[in-house]
Design a protein that fits this description.
- With 296 residues, the protein is mainly β.
- It has one domain: TolB, C-terminal domain (Neuraminidase, 6 Propeller), CATH 2.120.10.30.
- Helices cover 3% and strands 46% of the residues.
- A hairpin with a 5-residue loop joins strand 12 and strand 13.
Length: 296
């Protein structure tokens, strides 16, 4: 357990930070309501605006040649940043997405696995599951999972894809074959039963953990941002919680391991996740804490 006073502030005065990634000595992340993809050094210096995404940026990843992929949430597309900095459409997922697009993980062959909300979360619509969609490097799209309970953050560990299901209060695992297809779903970690209701207000109190963004470490454990508990959890396969880090009165919605030695856990925090509260405020903070096991 870690006290909130041990957290340090890296970046502040943003709207809602998400999709953090560590790459080539820099932290990359999306800010929802300023519509910016940002990068910075580990100490928060040298902040750069890497892209402007009017459709609201979220998940980030890279093709093998180094071009950046960006989830554009509201127009259901994946954007690709070319060498000259211009953004072009990489893939259109509108045929598969019943809610705004969400997080994304990209494998070493450039295949992206993308989730969507499935329903209108911000307006309290009935819960509706949604599958993961694979986007191949040429932009082709394929549904590759059964409907999931709000697929959120995802990591790839070896030949296994692990995805957080926020309203399923579990991490689900899939084996990846050579063609990028996924096996049947299995529990990687479960924190409780899937709520037996599609009413958002009834479902939320039934969740003991709301898994949001996740990050893998070199021992095969996963850090889980608990969107409902103001904490991140270090979890082993099977569901054992081996460490908790609390963020006090502020929520935490995504995390990533980075820094020079990979032992800095960066946390995307804000007072809440509701769009009407975050859109016109600048209260989101990127915090950091040192941990023992480096990132994978």
């Amino acid at each position: 357990m870690t006290n909130p006073t041990e957290l340090s502030t890296v970046l502040e005065k943003y709207s809602f930070l998400e999709g953090p990634r560590w790459r080539n000595g820099r932290l990359w992340l999306s800010d929802f309501y300023t519509h910016q993809v940002l990068s910075a050094r580990a100490d928060g210096s040298d902040v750069r605006v890497e892209a402007e995404v009017p459709g609201q940026p979220s998940g980030l990843g890279w093709l093998p040649d180094g071009r950046l992929l960006i989830v554009s949430m509201r127009d259901h597309t994946i954007l690709r940043r070319e060498g000259d900095g211009s953004l072009v459409e990489h893939a259109d997922l509108s045929a598969h997405a019943t809610g705004v697009l969400n997080d994304m993980v990209v494998d070493d062959r450039g295949r992206a696995y993308v989730g969507n909300f499935g329903f209108d979360l911000m307006n309290g619509a009935p819960l509706r599951p949604a599958p993961l969609v694979r986007v191949d490097p040429d932009g082709r799209t394929t549904v590759v999972t059964e409907p999931l309970h709000f697929p959120n953050g995802a990591v790839i560990m070896g030949n296994t894809l692990v995805v957080a299901e926020t309203f399923g209060q579990r991490l689900s695992a899939f084996d990846i074959d050579s063609d990028g297809n996924l096996s049947d779903r299995r529990d990687w970690a479960s924190f409780g039963a899937v709520p037996a209701t599609d009413d958002l207000n009834e479902a939320l109190p039934q969740l003991s953990v709301g898994p949001d963004g996740i990050a893998a470490d070199s021992e095969g454990a996963v850090w889980v941002a608990d969107a409902l508990g103001n904490r991140v959890l270090r979890v082993r396969e099977g569901g054992e919680i081996v460490q908790e880090i609390f963020t006090g009165e502020t929520g935490v919605y995504a995390c990533v391991l980075g820094g020079d030695d990979g032992r800095t856990l960066f946390l995307c925090t804000a007072p809440g996740f509701a769009e009407h509260e975050r859109r016109d405020t600048r209260e989101a903070v990127l915090q950091a804490v040192q941990v023992e096991v480096p990132g994978a």
